[in-house]
Amino acid sequence: MKSSFLRPGKTAIMTGAIAIIASLGFTPPARAQAPNGQQSAGQQPSGTPQKNYKDRGEYDLYSKITQTQDPKARLDLLNQWQDKYPQTEFSQERNEYFIATLAQLAPTDPSMRQKLLDKCNDVLKTDPKNFRANYLVAVWGPAVGGANPSPDLQTQVQTAAQAVVDNAPTAFDPSKKPSTVSDADFTKAKNQALGVAHNALAWVAVSKKDTKTAEAEYKASLQANPEQGNVSYQYGKMLQEDKSVPDDQKYPTVLFEYARAGEYTGPGQVPATAQAQIMDYFKKVYAQYHGGTDGEDQLLAQAKTSALPPDGFTIGSAAKAANQQADAMNQRIASDPAFKIWYAVKQSLTGDQGQQFFDSNVKDAEIPGGAEGVKNFTGTVISIDPPDRPTKVVLGVEDPAKPDATLEFSQPLPASALDKIKVGQKLDFGGVADSYTKDPYMLTFKDPTVPGVQTTAPAKKGRHR
């Protein structure tokens, strides 16, 4: 069972978080003034060395950049600044403008993403805790690297994502909240940033085939920000493809995460087309794993409101149940010689050559007839007909609730027989097999022997097998 509805490495882009994070930790230099021809960086903090432009041309470029709203036009001006003035006292500020501009272009222009990562690296060389640069690497590194990233990119993303996790409390300290942002939105942006960072760490772990770490990071991502249908899908897919974990240990979570990805609607949901495919796949795999659709609706309802399954969550496995039943059957066959014969006869009669086996080996034969020292079978009485003077008793041998043996008497049993033959009680029997049906399976005995019960008609004698 495999699935692939979303591109590997596709990262959930939290535009709301980016907008708030863009306001953290970056204060552009004041727009420069040029009194008396001196190119100045404006007011500098006390004790900070004065920064100067090389000439009027650099000052004019910078001034135009600060006034340009269109990101493509601004990027062109930044490239001009970089080409004409490769050495500048404003290199850090220029890089900050580069990453702010490239971050605007990256969502719709894939060619900008590697350039954005490069500029973020330039900023991080001198300011390794720069929250925005680390965050943008965590956002776009997996999108650039895809399913087969280079080791260098893995290291870059891992370092940046861990820095986001470590520095989030400081970056989102209430004192740093912009006045235009509500407390709720500020907290939400923090959780979105943490979700992206943990998701990036999961991506790195998957790239290294470290599924245990990836699972922990996916869970941390969804705990921080449940509004990530794509992450739920990637988490479920990773678990499903992990061959080191037994099906009954992983599939409850796999199915829950697929249900979440297919059912959740809202910010961060999976695109509608992929969502429909995921839902169809979920239903298929659920039925295969569980052996039916019972419980499916309850699971979907849970997944709609929660990104992770509750503690102790499980789904019954049809394969595990079948294996348990097979083990129990084998143990019963090994410990019960009478049932071993009964089961062997049934297997032969329900096989492709069942009628031929019945005609040559079972019909008019006394069974078990002393074979392997067994004289009688044992079944549980299911019905007596008629109740007062029965001529037919139906039993369950393999399953006490499922009929598979019928005892027919040519004359009604005496009333005294009802002391021994009661619904729900065990009953020993043996005798001549008269007929059978394959589906539903039923083996009928004519005037059998019932130890401890005096029948009206003598027990029918048959040939020995």
Description:
The protein is rod-shaped, with a radius of gyration of 38 Å. It has a 5-stranded mixed barrel. The chain folds into 2 domains: 15-305, Serine Threonine Protein Phosphatase 5, Tetratricopeptide repeat; 336-464, OB fold (Dihydrolipoamide Acetyltransferase, E2P), CATH 2.40.50. The chain contains 16 helices and 7 strands. The longest helix has 25 residues, at 183-207. Helices cover 51% and strands 9% of the residues. The chain has helices spanning 15-21, 56-67, 71-84, 91-105, 111-126, 131-145, 151-171, 183-207, 211-224, 229-241, 247-263, 272-290, 296-305, 318-335, 337-349, 354-362; strands at 365-367, 377-385, 392-396, 405-408, 426-437, 442-449, 463-464. It has 465 residues and is an alpha+beta fold. The two termini are 48 Å apart. Strand 3 and strand 4 form a beta hairpin. Helix 2 runs antiparallel to helix 3.
Q: What percentage of residues falls in helices of 4 or more residues? A: 40-55%
Weakly predicted, low-confidence segments:
8-12, 29-33, 35-43
The biggest beta sheet is recorded as:
5 strands, mixed, barrel
Beta-strand segment tally = 7
User: How many structural domains does the protein architecture include?
Assistant: 2
